[in-house]
Every structure is written in C-alpha cells, then in structure tokens.
Amino acid sequence: MTSTRRTALIAVMLLPSLLLLAVFLFLPLLRGIELSFYTWNGVAPVMHRAWLDNYARVWSDPAFLKALSRTVIWWAMHLGLAVGGGLVLAALISEIRWRRAQTLFRGLVFVPHIMSLAVVGVIWSQLYHPTIGLLNGFLDAIGLDKLAEPWLGSTGLALPAVGVASAWQAYGFYLVIFLAAIQAVDPALHEAAAIDGAGPWQRFRNITVPSLHNAISLVVVLAFINALKGFGTVWSMTEGGPDRSTELVAVYAYRQAFSLGDIGAASAAGLSIAVIAVVITVGFNRWRDRAAVGR
Fold it and tell me: How far apart are CA 24 and CA 16, in angstroms?
C-alpha cells in the first residue's frame, strides 16, 4: 500500500470521530467563546455586544472569586482523598498474590466510578442525613453522638462532606492507573530490596513511588481537570448551598446561566476556568518534562 493510500485510509477511518468531536466539542466551544462577548438572557431574539465587559464583571464579582477559591480547595481534597486513596489501595491490591482475589478486589473498588454522579449524590445525601443517616447513627451507636452534625446543612462542613463523596466516586479510576503502573515495575527490584532487609513501607517509598513518576504526573493533571468539572455531585447533593458554601466555578456558571439568565457571564466564567486549566496543565507538563531531563 502506497503512502498516499495509507494516508487516505487513515483519514477515512478518523472521519467519524472527527465529525463527532466537531459537533459535540469544537462547535459548542466556539459558540461559548462567541456568547462570552455578548449580553444575552438565552431567550431574547437579539444579543447585544459586550466585548470584554462580561469578563470584567465576572472577575470583579466576589461570588466568582470565592467560587474559584473553593474550586482550589476542592482540587486539593480530590488530590489527597481520591488520588492518595487510589495510590494506597493500588499498592495494597498489588501485594495480593492470589490472582483471582486481586481481580475481585480491583473490580469491587472500581464499582463507585461507574455509578452516575446523581446516584452517588443520592447515596451520600442519605448517609449524611442528620436524623436517619448512617453516619450520625454510627456515631450515636458508639457513644460519640456529640460529634453528630447536619453535615450538608453546615456552611463549614458541607464542602468537605461533598468532597468525600466525590473522592469516593473517583478513586477507582486513579487506582486502575496506579495498579497498571505498579505491575509494570520490575519485580527484581522489590526482591533485591527485600533480600537487603527493606520492609514493605521502605520498598513502597523507595522503589514503587519513584517508579510511578509518569503515572503520578498523569493523575495529577486528570485530578485537576476533574476538580474544575466538579458539578454533578455538588448539584445533586447541595445545589451549591448552604449559603453558597459549596458553590464551585462550574456551579457559579450554571447559576448565572439558568437562574439569573446571564448567558454572557456564564460563558465568560466557563471560558476563564478553561483557560486557567490549559495554562496550568501546559505549565505542569513542561515542568515535568524538564524535571525528567534533569534526572
């Protein structure tokens, strides 16, 4: 097959995927960029050009800045709970020598990730229920009823509570990535370290973690992107409340568009966070590549 025919065949095979990307990704993105420069309520027949006024209004809005700070906190929780939990569980599962048991545990821990965010929100809302929830019921059963709280009704506890639910839904995805990377580590390294007297923790810290450099870099970027998209779990559990204490940037943009009818501001907020995501991701990848060269 000539190179021309090979190129044509590749183009034909990629065409359906490219069309889907164009219809469901690129065109909406371009439309969102366009709307961010207009004042429009979503139903009026005429849009008024606003240029950069929408961006100025969004970035001068204290509610947006608070939502941005909560998004950073949300990402930190996601990184610590979902990514950290996934790494620890992956290391533990990798130590199981019985193949069928390892496969069983790997499948069980991945179950939360295949649940819809709405289902996860309902499950955890019931767990956090102040009167019939299992969490407060458990605290009461062990004599710690003074620690019982209205978890989703407290402005100080709602964001961490929803963050735990989101991490529970996501950790299985990161676990699979870490587990694949751990299984690719040369077993001879662990065997040699064990012969030298290294314990499980020493082998994990000095052999496993350094060998997961690329996997950790990938997961950090994915966790950051997922944190910026944190909408489904928050909306299904608190709708951004109480008193907007769980309002992330995604929830802020949704409220601007569908509650306040300010499509321009919603688009500006969404595009702003998208630009931030691209800049941070590109910067992180460049730093990672330079660090890899330095090693």
Answer: 12
Half-sphere exposure (CA, 13 Å, Cβ side) for 141?
7
Cα–Cα distance, 219 to 84 (Å, whole number): 10
Cβ-contact 160, 74 below 8 angstroms: no
The answer to whether 172 and 110 are in contact (CB under 8 A) is yes
CA dist 51 and 35 (Å) reads 10
| Alpha carbon of residue 170 to chain centroid | 7
Whether 230 and 250 have beta carbons less than 8 Å apart is answered as: yes
Q: What is the pLDDT of residues 170-218, one digit of tens each?
A: 999 999 899 888 888 888 887 888 887 877 788 888 888 888 888 888 8
DSSP 22: I
Give residue-wise pLDDT tens across range 253-293: 999 999 999 999 999 999 998 898 888 888 888 887 777 66
The secondary structure of residue 260, as a DSSP letter, is S
- The domains located in the chain, with CATH, are 61-261 (1.10.3720.10)
Chain length of the chain = 295
Tokens read off for 6? 């090979």
Tell me the H-state helices in 43-199: 53-59, 62-77, 84-94, 99-114, 117-127, 134-141, 158-183, 187-195
Residue with tokens 């065949």, as numbered in its chain: 9
Asked if residue 242 has a cis previous peptide bond (ω within 30° of 0), the answer is yes
Which of 63, 62, 74 lies closest to 158 in space, CA to CA?
Answer: 74
Rounded CA gap, 232 and 229, in Å?
8
